[in-house]
Write a structure and sequence with these properties.
The protein contains four helices and twelve strands, in the order ααββββββαββββββα.
Length: about 200
């Protein structure tokens, strides 16, 4: 028994040293922390790379002014523009002389992060929540209208930062938006998100 006790002591010490040497398993960010972050995101600007359902890629600059407003300015050669404002989403196509295609913002998964008060703790809103490679992944949907599609949000920690989202529409097409370094808290003019003003400017 004495020999066994001598064996156990160094074994325990060795196991403790091994445990200290191993990196701690990353924990996913709580939904309450993610909701806090999104609610505090009043204005933001970031470059983005968008991967479309057909595999094509686009680049541009994103502007956000919560609640309810976003602007995607696509870089040449595309030069398209997508705006969210006044409860609508408008898609301006540089190659078309037709009025912009419009539909209600509330019918898009993007509304989940642009609404006035984000609460990911609502029943049936979050359908997946996990961690991979140090990043937290959240899949959310409109709990009253899951048929509108889902949005996957990817966050890094320390500090909490939105890095990517993936929108899956009502027919299963996916659009991936990877965000560059995000600037926050700046002044953004309301004209950036004024669909009527943009339409009038293009009709001159």
């Amino acid at each position: 028994m004495k020999a066994l006790r001598h064996f156990r002591a160094p074994l325990a010490a060795t196991l403790a040293l091994v445990a200290l040497a191993l990196p701690a398993a990353a924990e996913k960010l709580p939904l309450a922390e993610i909701s806090r972050y999104l609610n505090g995101l009043t204005t933001a600007q970031a470059d983005f790379v968008q991967t479309n359902a057909d595999g094509s890629k686009s680049k541009g600059t994103l502007y956000i002014k919560r609640p309810g407003r976003a602007r995607f300015e696509y870089a040449p050669p595309q030069k398209s523009l997508v705006m969210a404002g006044a409860g609508q989403v408008a898609i301006f196509d540089e190659k078309s002389n037709q009025p912009p295609e419009q539909y209600p913002l509330r019918r898009t998964p993007l509304n989940l992060i642009l609404e006035r008060k984000v609460d990911l703790g609502q029943a049936k809103m979050v359908v997946a929540h996990g961690e991979a490679n140090g990043l937290t992944h959240v899949r959310a949907q409109d709990p009253k209208n899951p048929e509108y599609g889902t949005i996957d949000l990817v966050f890094s920690a320390n500090p909490t930062t939105l890095r990517q989202w993936i929108i899956t529409d009502d027919v299963g097409n996916q659009t991936v938006v990877d965000l560059g370094p995000m600037q926050t808290g700046m002044e953004l003019s309301g004209f950036l998100f004024d669909i009527s003003a943009e339409r009038a400017k293009r009709n001159r």
